[in-house]
Write a structure and sequence with these properties.
The chain is an alpha+beta fold. About 35% of the residues lie in helices and about 15% in strands. It is built from 4 helices and 4 strands. Strands 1-2-4-3 form a 4-stranded mixed β-sheet, sandwiched between helices. Strand 1 and strand 2 form a beta hairpin. The longest helix has 22 residues. The radius of gyration is 18 Å and the shape is globular.
Length: about 150
């Protein structure tokens, strides 16, 4: 009985994932990056890379309006990426909602995330940082970069 319940749960999860994928539309796939997904919904998006004082490269994406707009910066949490701000439909994703409201939207990525430096995650150097480094070194460098643009 237990194995049957587990199988039903697994099946329900798979069906749920297929429904979510279908609901979110065939506009994007798991292999697209955040910039491609934003573009797939018809929004502008550019990639920038920031070199932090400790030598790491982190990426930021920018959804820029043609005219001057107030700026908002979104930073994901631990073990996440900027994708968190644009992975749902535009009517459900904060990055799109803010852009549609008139903001120029910047989304940041931590080092160690999918969209950070081109180091090999199999090396120790890739993981040679602490949460303090994210808050005290990387984030100020990224915010300074955004403010200079």
């Amino acid at each position: 009985m237990r194995s049957r319940s587990l199988l039903l749960l697994l099946l329900a999860t798979c069906v749920g994932l297929l429904c979510i994928t279908h609901t979110a539309s065939a506009r994007f796939t798991a292999v697209q990056n955040i910039t491609q997904i934003i573009h797939s919904f018809g929004y502008p998006c550019g990639d920038d890379h920031v070199l932090t004082p400790s030598g790491f490269h982190v990426s930021v994406q920018r959804m820029k309006h043609a005219s001057a707009s107030p700026v908002v910066f979104l930073q994901h949490g631990i073990l996440d990426s900027a994708m968190t701000w644009a992975m749902n439909l535009p009517s459900e994703s904060l990055a799109f909602l803010l852009y549609d409201t008139g903001f120029e939207v910047w989304v940041g990525n931590d080092r160690g995330s999918t969209y950070s430096e081109p180091l090999n995650p199999e090396t120790e150097a890739y993981w040679d940082f602490t949460v303090d480094d994210l808050a005290l070194v990387d984030l100020p460098a990224v915010l300074e970069y955004v403010l200079q643009q």
